[in-house]
Structure formats: structure tokens, C-alpha cells
Design a protein that fits this description.
CATH architecture of the largest domain: 3-Layer(aba) Sandwich
Number of helices: 17
Radius of gyration: 21 Å
Largest sheet: 8 strands, mixed
CATH topology of the largest domain: Rossmann fold
Number of strands: 16
Strand content: 15-25%
Number of domains: 2
Distance between the termini: 42 Å
Strand order of the largest sheet: 4-5-2-1-7-8-9-10
Length: 417
């Protein structure tokens, strides 16, 4: 049995149920194969007051110190996160919190063979420091902004490059991020792409009419899912809907931009056609996908956008800005269309094109079925097992990734017809 310490601030907790759910999903599927015993360290920024007036900071205070999720022990040690000015210190503060937590676990009799870290900065850097202190091999997964945005700053870029050189293996969730890893100095022989999958049991075709009735939908409806922050492009979705009087828009997500987006909808005169649903639990998203005619993702950047496959698995085609790994997800007319430019006009042109030839919802579902978690979970288990077997001394052995890559050989590429 390989004992894995999963380390990342991107992990759900009782107060932030949708936070980092993609990390939990891959781990859950991997552990489900057997041979892996995992404990999760998911540090949470320290904040002393749980009153809702403090927004997302209050959620930090409400997060439990310990919980059981999907049968796994999850610990949430606190670390000092200083807004705006603390980015350079974040890896070291995370490392100190993580090291203290690991030592506490050791006193309970828990030891580990390998660290499985997610998000290169600050989490991956902190995990690499932990690996050095504990003499453990480390596998780090790049998820998106950690490689598409953060390395533009010299300090974080240097520390990311250091972490890459000290990791047994670097993992990317799409080819675009894989290329960025290599450009930052990762060895191609120790870099592997393990895309995200989709839970085909949770995200499935539901009674469409019942879903639409429950949400009081009676017109062509576009759905936009994601945190209410500028890079997700909800403002572009609202501006696009204003150009088509026969369309309505549902926005699922919470965040600091809500008041601004509501004001935009009012200013454009589409208040009655734009509905804000707030944060929607992950398990409740299938009914939204079932009710919608199209999912719109207008992001400025994405690693691998899970909402695209989730919608497709429910039979809902997508339109999405052609950024980073999105073209690796949307590869067929059954899946939807890529938006060539990030403007309201381009969104509407792409939507109109899709509406002229909407795929059958079963065809969209069939396309999504090619993205099951099973081959990814098998390769991930092989990767962690090989890294643990090599140990700290043998952490730079190219065979570690080679064994995992062999697990993916023969796995079908998504049909792009």
C-alpha cells in the first residue's frame, strides 16, 4: 500500500464545497482503484471571524480543522495569508504550516511515501520544500493560472522553476500547460499530461422538461457557470445576451463581481432575461445543465475547464473561448463550438452558428463519454506508486513517468469528427 500525502490549498471543505473539487475527484477515482492510502493536507488561510459580512474570508474561518470526505481524512491547518503584499512569502508560510501539520500526523503514527501536490505556486513550491525536509519524492500538478499567469512575475517564476527541478514528476491537465512546463525547464521525460475527466454517473442526462419547469424556463437559455470574477467573462455573457432578444441567461456562481454584473444587466435593460443563481452545489449542477440549451464559457484563460465536460455529459453543447486547453476539450461539432475572439459579437456569432445546427443531446453525451476518469486514475496511481518506489534518492529517474505514460498508451483520443 502506497501512503500518499495530498497537499494543496485547492480542495473542498465543509464551508467551500465547490473549491478545488477537480482535485478531489481525481484523488477519489485514484484511491478507488486500490493500492493507495491517501491523507489530505488542505491548508486554509487564517481568519478569525466567521461573520458573513466578511464574505469569502468568513468561509476560511468556518472551515473545519478536520473532516472526512469520501472516506478520506482531510486536515485544514491554518496559515498566514497576507492579501496583496504576501504573495512572495506564501510558499514559505504554507511550507511552515504544512511541516507542522505533518509532524502532528507523525505523532499519530502517520507516515508517507510520496507527496502529491496541486497548483505550482505557492502550493507546489511549498510541497517541494516539504519533500526536501521530509526526504520524500514529490509529484506536482499544474492546473491553470499557476502557469498561464503567475510565472509572468520574476519572483514566483524563479521559485516555480526551482520546484520543477526538485520534483520527481511534473503533471499538466492539458497539453498547453505541458508545453509551458517544458518551457520553464521541466524535462519532457519527467512531464506527463493527465487531463481531467468527468463523473459520468453524477453528470448524466436528466428529465429536461422537468428541469426547465423547475427553473421556470420557457425560452432559449444560455448558462454561464463559474466564480463571479472578471476572467470568467460573465460580463461578456451579459453583453452578448443583450444582442439577442430571444435568449435568456442563467449565471451560476458567487463572487465579488455580483453587484457590478447586476448593475450591468440593469444598464443594458436585460434584468428580466438575466438571472443570478448564486453558488450552486456541485451535485446540483446537472439539473442546470439539463435545463439549459447551451453552456457558455467566456474565460480569459483556463487550464482544463471542467464545466465543459460536465455540461456535455448532461447532453448540453457548449461554446467557449479558444484559450489554453479548451480546444483539447471541444473537438467535435457534437461538443459545440470555439469562440475565436473574446468579444460579445464573437460570442453571438458563435452561438448563432451553433443554433443553426444544434447537435442531438445524445450525441453530445456520447462525445463526453470518451472522457471518463478511469484511464487517468490508473495512470495517476502508477505515477504515484513509481515515485514512491523510487524514493527521494531516485526521484529523478525518468522511468517514473514512463510507467505512467505506458498506462495511457492505447487510450483513445476523443473523436473529433
Amino acid at each position: 500500500m502506497v501512503r500518499v500525502l495530498v497537499f494543496s490549498t485547492l480542495y473542498p471543505n465543509a464551508a467551500q464545497r465547490n473549491h478545488g473539487v477537480f482535485v478531489e475527484n481525481r484523488l477519489r477515482k485514484t484511491v478507488g482503484l486500490g493500492g493507495i492510502d491517501a491523507t489530505v493536507l488542505a491548508p486554509v488561510p487564517y481568519f478569525p471571524i466567521a461573520h458573513p459580512i466578511f464574505g469569502r474570508y468568513a468561509a476560511f474561518a468556518r472551515a473545519p480543522k478536520h473532516e472526512i470526505r469520501s472516506g478520506l481524512e482531510v486536515w485544514h491547518p491554518r496559515y498566514l495569508a497576507i492579501p496583496r503584499v504576501g504573495a512572495g512569502l506564501a510558499p514559505d508560510l504554507l511550507y511552515r504550516a504544512g511541516l507542522s501539520a505533518v509532524r502532528n500526523l507523525a505523532r499519530r503514527g502517520l507516515t508517507f511515501d510520496v507527496i502529491d501536490a496541486h497548483y505550482f505556486y505557492p502550493d507546489g513550491v511549498a510541497a517541494a520544500l516539504l519533500g526536501e525536509a521530509l526526504q520524500l519524492p514529490v509529484v506536482i500538478t499544474a492546473r491553470g493560472t499557476d502557469l498561464t499567469l503567475i510565472p509572468t512575475e520574476a519572483g514566483p517564476r524563479a521559485r516555480i522553476k526551482w520546484a520543477i527541478q526538485h520534483a520527481s514528476a511534473s503533471v499538466a491537465v492539458c497539453n498547453d500547460l505541458g508545453r509551458r512546463l517544458v518551457a520553464l525547464g521541466a524535462s519532457e521525460k519527467r512531464t506527463i499530461v493527465l487531463r481531467n475527466g468527468v463523473d459520468l454517473e453524477l453528470f448524466t442526462q436528466a428529465d429536461r422538461q422537468a428541469a426547465r419547469t423547475a427553473l421556470d424556463i420557457n425560452t432559449f437559455t444560455v448558462l454561464s457557470v463559474g466564480s463571479l470574477i472578471p476572467r470568467k467573462g460573465h460580463h461578456l455573457a451579459i453583453e452578448a445576451i443583450a444582442l439577442r432578444a430571444d435568449c435568456a441567461l442563467l449565471i451560476a456562481g458567487g463572487g465579488p463581481q455580483r453587484a457590478e454584473l447586476e448593475a450591468l444587466a440593469h444598464r443594458l435593460g436585460v434584468d428580466e432575461r438575466v438571472r443570478f443563481l448564486g453558488d450552486v452545489p456541485h451535485r446540483d449542477l446537472p439539473r442546470l445543465y439539463a435545463a439549459a440549451d447551451v453552456l457558455l464559457l467566456a474565460s480569459e484563460r483556463e487550464g482544463w475547464a471542467n464545466v465543459l465536460l460536465e455540461a456535455m455529459a448532461c447532453g448540453t453543447p457548449v461554446i467557449a473561448t479558444d484559450v489554453n486547453g479548451t480546444s483539447e476539450v471541444v473537438r467535435s461539432s457534437a461538443a459545440g463550438r470555439l469562440i475565436p475572439r473574446r468579444t460579445p459579437e464573437a460570442i453571438i456569432d458563435t452561438l448563432d452558428d451553433l443554433r443553426r445546427d444544434l447537435p442531438h443531446r445524445q450525441d453530445t453525451r456520447s462525445y463526453a463519454e470518451q472522457f471518463s476518469w478511469e484511464p487517468i486514475a490508473r495512470a495517476n496511481r502508477t505515477l504515484l506508486t513509481a515515485a514512491a518506489r523510487a524514493g527521494y534518492a531516485g526521484r529523478f529517474d525518468d522511468k517514473i513517468v514512463g510507467e505512467a505514460r505506458a498506462q495511457l498508451t492505447g487510450a483513445a483520443e476523443p473523436d473529433s469528427r
